Amino acid sequence: MNRGLALFVGSRLLQTAVVLLLMSFAVYLLIGLMPGDPIDLMLAGDPRLTPDDIVRLRAVYGLDQPLWARYSAWFGNALSGDLGSSRLYARPVLDVMGPFFLNTCILMGVSFVLSVFLAVPLGVWASRRPGSLVDRAANAFAFIGISMPVFWLGLALIILFSVLLSWLPASGTGRSGGNMFDTVRHLMLPVITLTLHETGVLLRYVRSSMIETLRQEFIRAARAKGASDGWILWRHALPNAMLPVVTIIALSFGGLFSGALVTESIFAYPGMGRMIYDSVMGNDYNLALAGLLIATILTLLANLAADLLYAWLDPRIRLGDSP
User: Fold this and answer.
1) Are both 205 and 304 inside the same structural domain?
2) What's the whole-number mean pLDDT along residues 9-19?
């Protein structure tokens, strides 16, 4: 790694730390200002609690302190690796979040990889002859994937493959300790749902970017030199066309880990999106804050990876170099 690139990465990591600090304070403030608190929920669940019990519990949870003092205490503990305990699960936040994060990594990772590997070849293929039958079919597939709401597509797949055909399970992740085949069967419907939607979005960007790139002067020059169509498409046009597409991929990557609440709810899949929703609704401050910060970190790291990919795809880009 050269000095300019090292300085660029270091600067971006410092910016990431600052954004996380501001994000943590904003989320903590918003959650703290929500009506109700854990003690109110405890009181609703156990009317036998006395006023003395409520005062004692508020002191135990630190709710008798002002909001800035509670945030300072949480931030100091977070720096030492202690994110607190989850009120809903009565366990440390890191222990609770681990299985949810792993499930999301599997579901979203597989969907993301499949979407990219489907959208890029289809977009390149469709861009060769705009207006042809192949291009129209690719456009139709993209618009179908974008237009169908995720909840409708998920329910339609459940009705078809689980209710009518009884081929695939409709929900869950499989039995604990079950074999790999059972896990794959439970993953298929949510993966298909997310893949179809994401492929439609990426396919449109790849196609339009490729069509615009193929009209550039350097493509005409490559053809004049006798380069084959395959060499022009994959060696010259695609790297340049992928520059704007990489931005879209980076922006969608982080959102996949926290924004798939609808899919996880439909298929009863225990992932990060569902966990964040339940923790916010249950006033589980520590768990909600940790989940949202993880989503923020992934989004920021995805943007950093996109900047590094720019330099790899286009050698003219020099990260960290002064003009």
Assistant:
1) yes
2) 84
What's residue 177's pLDDT? 57
How many independent structural domains does the chain possess?
2
H or E element in which residue 90 lies: none
Cβ atoms 256, 298 nearer than 8 A: no
250-300, pLDDT tens digit by residue? 777 765 655 577 788 788 888 887 888 888 777 777 888 888 888 888 878
Residue 159's H or E segment, with its range, is none
d(CA 317, CA 309): 10
pLDDT value, residue 322: 45
Specify the DSSP class assigned to residue 168: S
**What is the residue range of 9's domain?**
3-93
Q: Tally Cβ neighbours within 10 Å of residue 241.
A: 26
**pLDDT for position 40:** 64
| Residue range 105-130, pLDDT digits in tens | 888 888 888 988 999 899 888 888 88
The domain boundary, picked from 93, 124, 149, lies at 93
Secondary element (H or E) of residue 283: none
Torsion of CA 165, 170, 175, 177, to 10 degrees: 90
**Residue 30 above 70 pLDDT?**
yes
Interhelix angle 38-45/51-61, nearest 10 degrees: 140
Instruction: Name 266's Cβ contacts closer than 8 Å, sequence gap at least 6.
Output: 150, 151, 154, 155, 158, 190, 193
Measured CA to CA, the distance from residue 50 to residue 58 in angstroms comes to 12
Verify that 147 and 249 share a domain, yes or no: yes
CA 173/CA 103 separation, integer angstroms: 9
Q: Among residues 25, 60, 93, which one ends one of the domains?
A: 93
Token pair belonging to 251: 């922006």
